[in-house]
């Protein structure tokens, strides 16, 4: 089961993701992330994947759109990001 924890900053919002991100989890995470964006209106969203243990291609949809950074993807997530030609820190 995937989970997201938010930490707001000055003009930023960090979303720390954990667990397995598959089709169903990605939909739920997207709703949670979108609600936080709507509430806080950050200039920059950071998605931290350090706690993600598995991600299929549906997780890539979390990354598309808006201005954001991707950080700390584990090896399994980096593979999917590389296939989608998405850069990360």
Describe what this molecule looks like in 3D.
- The chain is an alpha/beta fold.
- The chain is 30% helix and 36% strand.
- It is built from 2 helices and 4 strands; from the N terminus they run ββαββα.
- It has a 4-stranded mixed beta sheet.
- Strand 2, helix 1 and strand 3 form a beta-alpha-beta unit.
- The mean pLDDT is 94.
Short description:
With 89 residues, the protein is α/β, with parallel strands linked by helices. The chain contains 2 helices and 4 strands.
List keywords for this structure.
2 helices, alpha/beta
Largest sheet, in brief, is: 4 strands, mixed
Gross morphology = globular
Chain oligomer state = single chain
Strand percent estimate: 35-45%
Head-to-tail CA distance between termini? 25 Å
Q: In total, how many beta strands?
A: 4
Order of helices and strands: EEHEEH
Number of helices: 2
Helix content: 25-40%
Uncertain parts: none
Radius of gyration over all CA atoms, rounded:
12 Å
Alpha-beta content class: alpha/beta
SSE order and pairing:
Elements: E1 3-8, E2 12-21, H1 23-40, E3 44-55, E4 68-71, H2 75-83
Parallel strand pairs: 2-3, 3-4
Antiparallel strand pairs: 1-2
């Amino acid at each position: 089961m995937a989970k997201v924890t938010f930490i707001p900053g000055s003009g930023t919002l960090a979303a720390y993701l954990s667990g397995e991100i598959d089709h169903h989890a990605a939909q739920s995470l997207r709703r949670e992330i979108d609600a936080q964006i709507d509430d806080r209106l950050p200039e920059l969203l950071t998605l931290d994947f350090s706690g993600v243990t598995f991600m299929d291609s549906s997780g890539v949809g979390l990354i598309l759109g808006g201005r954001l950074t991707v950080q700390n993807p584990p090896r399994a997530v980096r593979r999917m990001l590389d296939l989608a030609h998405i850069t990360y820190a």
